[in-house]
């Protein structure tokens, strides 16, 4: 049966079919979203809760623990960790990979609701959650600065105007605001004056709460008219609160201004943002899942002049960070690489065939296959990203293989004097099954990735399906358009009329075949030596896999750095700010840095800061982002009590978000015995700091933050009628920035915050000035029933799986791979001899690396099994698939050796290269084996004569397809622009593997074929079964 026959005979229908494929693909291309990496529905949910004034220990015990117990009952929770700091708790839930993220989110919300009664009554709002995508970084950061307005007023503008407007831009998801807090009226009480007038903190709180209310008041009507009732019950500014009367004393009004300073300020004094050299409020913009980053950013930029126009003239809206230029440059480079790859493979056809007409055929066939793939990508909801574009670049070498096989076979028949139409019908029929075998087995290789599960399946799903789709479209094009064009465009061969290029190509082919024939004959006379060399390559594969350095993913240069500033435990906000200034100025002074934006304080604690460093384009800075980090570390001034950790921002992050960890790798200690954990933690930190393989180690320093513990004499308190609730209420009123009333506005809601004057919150001695009321109404100082003790507390409390834990973050030293670093850690921990009660494990990227490292051999084995099964079914043979698979060890040696010799690292991208090699290298063996079987069945040749003839006859298409695949990968290997670090390992792996496998498999394949054929014949003879090759008819 000739599948190509109807298409060869109906050129109009074939051209229209190809045109339809092009149109569908072209329209789909314009609809595809753009992103750095594929959309990964990675089931991670982060829950956040806040309780102003609460210590880390209180947040952990009263907020984190109840939530963790509820979350622990949710099915499919893989890991659960929490971090509680001053006034905030953050719980990270990672679910099983096959868990539906939306269903998980509903169960998380239900668990939060179920925990309502277990949470502190003073929480102003319930915990909230958000779904985290490790492949989704913020696409833009905007800054608001002003020389006139306060940061609270800027934050109000960002919250009420900008955030709402930006959220309405198509493609925009969450808009986060940082760098300050909403405006608030702050009541700063004077304890001495309160004591003098005999006023309690609750008296002040009740006065304010009763004076500022907002309730419905109804309406009155006389039957004809209606009047809404309003009152001056809402107080909006500090000046409105100052005259409030607390009570009358000796006939005179005691007003709030007599015992407190009332001012317009902000909700949280310990929160500050900056952009370059200016104080700023920052808006961090995230995109919706699946949205086109470029279109979304362009839409935001188009909206910026409109937003600037509605802002006060003194306010400047600046672009602090924009991901789109780097993404545009990366994708543009990938697109140019794709065009270069297409041009190179077409050049291969021209050099080997010497016929410009023949070269035009793949010029049409390849674009149809690639453009048609866009339609399938759109149907599957894929995007144009680094991985899908790499798939298309590599597909160039694969889809041209199909065109080459058909074109070369038809051209050979034309050279033998057969008319083009008849040659097209005959040639297409001869290679039809060969094409089917090559492409179906190749699709099986890439689709096997979909069954790997975990990170690999999520990350490379688009890559594998895109490649498989291009192969399927290529198969259709090769069986329809390519033979039809050969029949219509190629001219009959007339001896003596060849041009110079054709004559050169013919001489080249004759010399290659002649030289190959001589070497092949020698190999066939020394088959045992050849088989031994094949066994050696298998052993070398194993040895190289062991010694080649390994990593998770190549370090990307996204043009952005993330910085974390850690102050010593207990460092105050006012002391932290100047330290942050030193680091900010040092970073901004580097010639590669374009801008710096960040936050101090907030939910991270008063001794922590976070910064986003925007680098200049690669063409301007001339060095990688990692080199910039190394230079900054060398030039960074020493700041007592503070340290700056920098890391290159990556498109793929693990561990709950970019603000969760200060480095790419984390090491966790957990234990049910808190004493054991705290005893061993500093020992582990010291052991890791002694390792030269690690750098930028971020661990809890010192003995902890200062803490004042109020020790109440419960017997004395009971005698005086004072209970613990009264004591904690007084402290809450005085020191926790308590929000005691709400101001309702037409655009937003604002808080009234009460505390003692900050000057009375600087020394534990001031606790003695706070008074409580006894049962008989007497006012007594706290010192009458309690004394305080200075102690130490953790500035954060961490849990892992509901157990107490500690985290150590770090980066690998320059030149050290992840594998080398993790091995060094394992040896160091083994020497410590940790007790069984203390469990240690890698987290974040390190945990992801460990998981994929264990599964890599099984992934490769799975791909080999898939290929064997498909080929066994197609050839109706247990033996011939083994012959085809025997070509793979040499490709593995070439790939691993190229990585080793160039000082590279074996990553998931390199693993993709191995999968591709499995598909490409076996195609050459299929070309040989398929023709050898045909010659045995139809020409009556013996096994050695048939395989020798097949090798010689298929030499030219094998060389053409291999060279086309290598040249298709060459632009990847030589790439130096944005995104090169993702493309180079793939190109290097493919070229190294193809180069060595091409040299070896031309000789090992026929020898293995003959060896397995002899085994098959002996086995069948032993069973008494006929061994005629004609009985082995493939599907």
TrEMBL record:
It is found in: Cell inner membrane. It comes from the Bacteria. The keyword Cell cycle does not apply. It is a multi-pass membrane protein. The chain crosses the membrane at residues 12-32, 336-353, 360-381, 431-451, 463-481, 529-548, 858-875, 908-933, 954-974, 986-1012. It holds the Pfam family ACR_tran. Keywords: Cell inner membrane, Cell membrane, Membrane, Transmembrane, Transmembrane helix, Transport. One of its GO terms (molecular function) is xenobiotic transmembrane transporter activity. One of its GO terms (cellular component) is plasma membrane. The keyword Cell cycle does not apply. This is Multidrug efflux pump.
């Amino acid at each position: 049966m000739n599948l190509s026959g109807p298409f060869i005979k109906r050129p109009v229908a074939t051209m229209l079919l190809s045109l339809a494929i092009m149109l569908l693909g072209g329209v789909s291309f314009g609809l595809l979203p753009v992103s750095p990496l594929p959309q990964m529905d990675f089931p991670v949910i982060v829950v956040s809760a806040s309780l102003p004034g609460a210590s880390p220990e209180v947040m952990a015990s009263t907020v984190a623990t109840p939530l963790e117990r509820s979350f622990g009952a949710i099915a499919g929770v893989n890991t659960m960790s929490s971090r509680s700091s001053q006034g905030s708790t953050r719980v990270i839930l990672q679910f099983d990979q096959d868990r539906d993220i939306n269903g998980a989110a509903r169960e998380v919300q239900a668990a939060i609701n179920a925990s309502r009664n277990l949470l502190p009554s003073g929480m102003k709002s319930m915990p909230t959650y958000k779904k985290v995508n490790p492949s989704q970084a913020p696409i833009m950061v905007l800054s608001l600065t002003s020389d006139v307005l306060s940061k609270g007023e800027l934050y109000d503008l960002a919250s009420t105007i900008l955030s709402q407007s930006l959220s309405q831009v198509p493609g925009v998801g969450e808009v986060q605001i940082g760098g300050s807090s909403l405006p608030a009226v702050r009541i700063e009480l004077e304890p001495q004056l309160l004591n003098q007038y005999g006023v309690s903190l609750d008296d002040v709180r009740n006065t304010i709460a009763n004076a500022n209310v907002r309730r419905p008041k109804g309406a009155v009507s006389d039957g004809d008219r209606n009047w809404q009732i309003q009152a001056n019950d809402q107080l909006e500014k500090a000046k409105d609160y100052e005259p409030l009367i607390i009570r009358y004393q000796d006939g005179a009004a005691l007003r709030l201004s007599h015992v407190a300073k009332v001012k317009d300020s902000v909700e949280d004094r310990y929160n500050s943002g900056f952009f370059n050299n200016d104080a700023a409020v920052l808006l961090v913009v995230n995109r919706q899942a699946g949205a086109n980053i470029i279109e979304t950013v362009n839409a935001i930029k188009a909206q910026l002049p409109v937003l600037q126009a509605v802002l006060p003239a003194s306010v400047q809206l600046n672009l602090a960070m924009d991901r789109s230029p780097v993404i545009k440059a990366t994708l543009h480079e990938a697109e140019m690489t794709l065009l270069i790859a297409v041009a190179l493979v077409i050049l291969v056809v021209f050099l080997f065939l010497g016929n410009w007409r023949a070269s035009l055929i793949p010029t049409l066939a390849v674009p149809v296959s690639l453009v048609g793939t866009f339609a399938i990508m759109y149907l599957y909801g894929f995007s144009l990203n680094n991985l899908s574009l790499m798939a298309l670049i590599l597909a160039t070498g694969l889809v041209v293989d199909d065109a080459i096989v058909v074109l070369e076979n038809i051209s050979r028949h034309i050279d033998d004097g057969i008319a083009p139409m008849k040659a097209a019908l005959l040639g297409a029929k001869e290679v039809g099954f060969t094409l089917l075998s090559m492409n179906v087995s190749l699709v099986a290789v890439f689709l096997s990735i979909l069954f790997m599960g975990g990170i690999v399946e999520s990350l490379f799903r688009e890559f594998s399906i895109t490649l498989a789709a291009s192969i399927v479209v290529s198969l259709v094009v090769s069986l329809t358009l390519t033979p039809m064009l050969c029949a219509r465009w190629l001219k009959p061969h007339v001896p003596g009329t060849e041009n110079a290029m054709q004559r050169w190509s013919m001489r080249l082919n004759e010399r290659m075949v002649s030289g190959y024939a001589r070497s092949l004959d020698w190999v066939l006379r020394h088959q045992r030596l050849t088989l031994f060399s094949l066994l050696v390559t298998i052993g070398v594969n194993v040895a190289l896999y062991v010694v080649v350095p390994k990593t998770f993913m190549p370090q990307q240069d996204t043009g952005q750095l993330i910085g974390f500033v850690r102050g010593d435990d207990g460092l105050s906000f006012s002391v932290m700010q100047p330290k942050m200034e030193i680091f900010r100025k040092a970073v901004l002074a580097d010639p590669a840095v374009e801008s710096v934006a960040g936050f101090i304080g907030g939910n991270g604690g008063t001794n922590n800061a976070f910064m986003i460093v925007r680098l200049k384009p690669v063409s301007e800075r001339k060095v990688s982002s990692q080199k910039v980090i190394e230079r900054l570390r060398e030039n960074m001034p020493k700041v007592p009590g503070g340290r700056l950790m920098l890391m290159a921002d990556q498109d793929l992050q693990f561990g709950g978000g970019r603000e969760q960890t200060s480095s790419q790798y984390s090491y966790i200690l957990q234990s049910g015995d808190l004493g054991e954990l705290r005893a061993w933690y500093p020992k582990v930190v010291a052991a890791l700091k002694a390792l030269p393989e690690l750098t930028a180690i971020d661990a809890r320093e010192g003995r902890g933050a200062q803490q004042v513990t109020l020790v109440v004499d419960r017997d004395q308190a009971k005698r005086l009628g004072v209970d613990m609730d009264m004591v904690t209420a007084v402290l809450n009123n005085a020191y926790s920035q308590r929000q005691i009333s709400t101001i309702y506005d037409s655009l937003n809601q604002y808080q009234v915050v009460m505390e003692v004057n900050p000057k009375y919150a600087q020394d534990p001695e001031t606790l003695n000035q706070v008074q409580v009321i006894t049962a008989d109404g007497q006012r007594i100082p706290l010192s009458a029933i309690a004394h305080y003790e200075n102690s130490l507390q953790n500035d954060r409390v961490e849990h892992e799986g509901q157990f107490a834990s500690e985290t150590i973050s770090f980066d690998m030293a320059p030149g050290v791979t992840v594998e080398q670093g993790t091995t060094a850690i394992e040896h160091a921990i083994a020497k410590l001899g940790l007790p069984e009660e203390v469990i240690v494990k890698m987290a974040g990227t390190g945990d992801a690396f460990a998981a994929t490292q264990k599964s890599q051999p099984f992934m490769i084995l799975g791909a080999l099994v898939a290929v064997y099964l498909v080929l066994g079914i197609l050839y109706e043979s247990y033996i011939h698939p083994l012959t085809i698979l025997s070509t793979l060890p040499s490709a593995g040696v070439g790939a691993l050796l190229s990585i080793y010799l160039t000082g590279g690292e074996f990553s998931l991208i390199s693993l993709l290269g191995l999968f591709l090699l499995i598909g490409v290298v076996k195609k050459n063996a299929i070309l040989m084996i398929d023709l050898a079987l045909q010659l045995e069945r139809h020409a009556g040749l013996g096994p050695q004569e048939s395989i020798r003839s097949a090798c010689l006859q298929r030499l030219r298409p094998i060389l053409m397809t291999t060279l086309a695949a290598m040249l298709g990968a060459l632009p990847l290997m030589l790439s130096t622009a944005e995104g090169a670090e993702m493309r180079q390992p793939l190109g290097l792996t493919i070229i190294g593997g193809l180069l060595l496998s091409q040299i070896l498999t031309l000789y090992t394949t026929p020898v293995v074929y003959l060896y397995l054929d002899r085994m098959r014949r002996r086995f069948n003879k032993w069973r008494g079964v006929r061994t005629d090759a004609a009985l082995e008819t493939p599907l």
